[in-house]
Design goal:
Elements (H helix, E strand, L loop, with lengths): L19 H13 L5 E4 L2 H10 L3 E4 L5 H9 L3 E3 L3 H4 L10 H9 L1 H11 L2 E2 L9 H6 L3 H4 L6 H17 L22 E4 L13 H4 E6 L2 E5 L2
Parallel strand pairs: 1-2, 2-3, 3-4
Antiparallel strand pairs: 5-6, 6-7
């Protein structure tokens, strides 16, 4: 839909062409495969293009406006924003990319405000996948959102809401049943922390020390209580 932030060959505001085949796949092909399509987009034009094509979830979305926010709500779409990738790791960007990083970071406040005002369904993600140092620090994403989102809502987006998006993958989801919630019949994943993460998110940054108990699919993997 639009160039990636890390692509040195093109600007964030430049749209890529859409075509009937890709739009048809988003709207009908993915449904036929029992799954959905997610788009990595920033701009108003790119997001509108994604919405018109039938995309169900938007990664980033930093530069959306009120019209796009309302369209996302009307279409039952999800938003997966990130903060830390623009702040803490900006020094890792190649010379061609700092300007893009500043542009999309500047849109974070308006995006979070619009998401709250319009009621966009949101999830939690970091977009950190290839940098080893960044991967080790990605739990700092929790506290990085506190300027706009309450701790309880952040945790809900990281658990129950993210679980709902996973279910959009249908039979392709590797998780049987409900995930992200503690209810009867749900996939038995559970973390217990040393301390109240709602009161102090920083405990999650040192996750080796903070997480005292891990249950994955009903199997206890760590018990240090």
């Amino acid at each position: 839909m639009v160039p990636h932030l890390h692509d040195p060959r093109s600007g964030v505001l430049r749209r890529r062409r859409s075509d009937r085949k890709s739009d048809t796949f988003c709207r009908y092909g993915a449904e036929g495969f029992g799954t959905h399509v997610t788009a990595h987009v920033y701009t108003v034009g790119g997001n509108k293009q994604a919405i018109d094509a039938g995309v169900r979830s938007i990664e980033h979305g930093n530069l959306i406006d009120e019209e796009i926010a309302q369209m996302m709500v009307e279409n039952g779409m999800w938003l997966s924003p990130q903060v830390l990738v623009y702040r803490a790791f900006s020094a890792d960007l190649r010379p061609a990319r700092p300007e893009k990083g500043r542009l999309v970071e500047a849109g974070l406040g308006d995006m979070f405000s619009l998401a709250k005002e319009c009621g966009i369904k949101s999830v939690f993600g970091t977009d950190v996948v290839v940098n080893p140092r960044a991967c080790a620090d990605q739990n700092k994403e929790f506290a990085a959102r506190l300027d706009w989102v309450t701790p309880a809502k952040i945790l809900t987006r990281a658990t129950a809401n993210s679980g709902e998006v996973l279910q959009l993958s249908g039979y392709r989801s590797p998780y049987p049943g409900v995930v992200g919630r503690i209810v009867e019949g749900a996939h038995a994943d559970l973390l217990l922390t040393n301390g109240n993460s709602v009161e102090d998110f920083t405990i999650l940054e040192d996750y080796d020390a903070a997480i005292a108990f891990i249950m994955k699919a009903g199997v206890i993997n760590r018990e240090n209580m």
